[in-house]
Amino acid sequence: AKAEGGNGMHFFNPELAAAAERRRQLENDLRMAIREEQFVLFFQPIVDLLESRISGAEVLIRWNHPQRGLVSPNEFIPLAEDTGLIIDIGLWALEASGRQLARWRTEGRELSLSLNVSGRQIPAGLPVEVLRDALYRLGFRSEFLALEITEGVLLDDVEGALNWLTAVRSQGFSIYLDDFGTGYSSLSYLKRFPVDRLKVDRSFVRDIDKDPSDRALVEAIVAMARSLSLEVVAEGVEEAEHVRLLHAMGCRYLQGFYFSPPVPLETFDDIHDQLPDM
Ligand code: C2E
Ligand code: CA
Ligand code: CA
Ligand code: CA
């Protein structure tokens, strides 16, 4: 019985092998997707409470897979990061966002976009020269493009990240600190790293109507941001009560399903002139 095929042994595990095979397949598909530009951008409105208008959108990538249809970034961004493919995907997303900003500019619409940037892209995968080149080649204005980074990005290579941030901001691009509050070193990092906006993670926003400590936390973030001259975007706004509370706290920008999920460009173009339902 001892010699029998692998029971309790680690030599061959069919489930692990199948997972590895799926991963290999996904990686091949992803390489193909980059070559054939199978990605699309979705746009989720960001509402400016001060001006009572949609001031722009966060750009969220989708993979239009030939067999599987629209694939969520949660399913392929981690693999793209592991394999380094995120760098080419990121360049494509920059190009597509820049083209859209240039289009709006010729139409006389003042809309800004914010683009997600992974740690793998900073600093060498998305150098400031590439951003500057996109700017001049496509003809949009840097003040309308923000780059969303998470504070984790800043931990790996503090020096490199700091230089990148400084160079990017000196070209007029904005930096949003994404998923703010989920890291552990937020406060000290805010002092060290030059950023323009904090995006309060939706895990804190979700229960502000029910949980007094979440409410106090968001209130404290807004107050702290104000004292540092930073703007705040609340993510994951799903209910009228969220809007009311965040407005009362003095949070200027809101984003979430209450206003709109991420939508394709045609839909965003239809809604962005409208006053959001508040
Ligand atoms: P994220 O940057 O935190 O993006 C916000 C996510 O929250 C989006 O998921 C959005 O659809 C979702 N969301 C927005 N409002 C609400 C709400 O009210 N309630 C709930 N429950 N969810 C809401 P999505 O589009 O699936 O993106 C997931 C993540 O994938 C993003 O998280 C971001 O980290 C990453 N990602 C998306 N596009 C890109 C990209 O172009 N480049 C990189 N590097 N990462 C990207
Ligand atoms: Ca984001
Ligand atoms: Ca976020
Ligand atoms: Ca609720």
Automatic annotation (TrEMBL):
Q: What residue stretches are annotated with the EAL domain?
A: 23-276
Task: Write down the superkingdom of origin.
Answer: Bacteria
Residues annotated as coiled-coil are none
Q: What name appears for this protein in its UniProt entry?
A: PAS domain S-box-containing protein/diguanylate cyclase (GGDEF)-like protein
Organism of provenance: Thiobaca trueperi
